[in-house]
Amino acid sequence: MKDIVFCSNNCFVLYSAALQAKNSENKESVPSLPQSPMKERPPKAFHQYSNNISTLDVHCLPQLQEKVSPPSSPPIMFPPAFEAAKVEAKPDELKVTVKLKPRLKAIHGSLDDCRPPSKKWKGMKWKKWSIQIVIPKGSFKPPCEEEIDEFLKKLGTTLKPDPVPKDYRKCCFCHEEGDGLTDGPARLLNLDLDLWVHLNCALWSTEVYETQAGALINVELALRRGLQMKCMFCHKMGATSGCHRLRCTNIYHFTCAIKAQCMFFKDKTMLCPMHKPKGTHEQELSYFAVFRRVYVQRDEVRQIASIVQRGERDHTFRVGSLIFHAVGQLLPQQMQAFHSSKALFPVGYEASRLYWSMRYANRRCRYLCSIEEKDGFPLFVIKVVEQGHEDLVLTDTTPK
Questions:
Q1: Domains of the chain, start order
Q2: Sign of CA dihedral 97, 98, 99, 100
Q3: Computed from CA positions of residues 233, 234, 237, 240, in that sequence, does the dihedral angle turn out positive or negative?
Q4: Which DSSP symbol is given to 178?
Q5: What gap in Å lies between CA 354 and CA 392, rounded to an integer?
Q6: How far is C-alpha 32 from the chain's CA centre?
Q7: Which of 87, 122, 148, 229 keeps 20 to 30 A from 189, CA to CA?
């Protein structure tokens, strides 16, 4: 077919009639699709505008025309790569929930990588518990330990042991009951039968001194003198700690001297408030705790003799595992046969001892030992007292 030339505004357009007929046939046979700027291409016919100024390529004119007129249908938006990954993971999450085996697919580089996978069991409910503390305005006094103990006792939510029985032992110097503070009178030491003294009350007495082994000497002498001396602070008897200033007659209990702010020195001397130096001193002692082994030196033979000579005793005399019940006696006609070169065998002697059992390897039982008279000679009797068995009595003419 022939080409047709149109002339308009000094421009010549060459158009192919055969190509137009071919395009019209294709349009009638193919259904109409939404126009896409990416897939649609301009026809291969040559369109050219020529004027006196320049020559322009007309292939970009369809794109400029598309920007002006909006598309007939909304464009199809494809999600980015990471969103597509999330969309693809949803069917897997459903399968995971059914199988109860969570296997989360975390995205690399995101914040979810560091979180551990959480397990959710069927039928379990989660609740949040929030605490709100309200502090009242003004002066608030916290409860003391006694108030807290009383409150817990009323609620009945705590288990406490039985209270310790009160210590009724009394110091012969300061007349206070029970053990004292470590940085104060300190623990009680036994002086004699039912006689007790505080360690520092005895140690800081003027007559008392301590040996290298830890024995306190002249405690009884200080006690006898203290029964006649009156304390300058509490005006009670038993004061034994005097001021070391020459011709000073002020004397105190150890506890009263601390209350009166007397000054103690490392060489075991003390000055009353009237004679102590002003300010601090290099040799001043401000800590009175004694953790070394200290005991009262006493004559045990005389002490045992005094216990034996007492008639009715309310106390139990015990030495180690041996408990004395009765000492016994010897008459003049028994002296010949009831003694040896090392020991006496008084008739009526009775004592008990806790020792290993003869029947069981790791158990103890009680052995009751006594001395009786038989045909003018001593008879030694041992009675074995063990729980679950009858008493076994053993006798012989010698202690061995």
A1: 186-294 (3.30.40.10), 310-394 (3.30.160.360)
A2: positive
A3: negative
A4: S
A5: 15
A6: 84
A7: 229
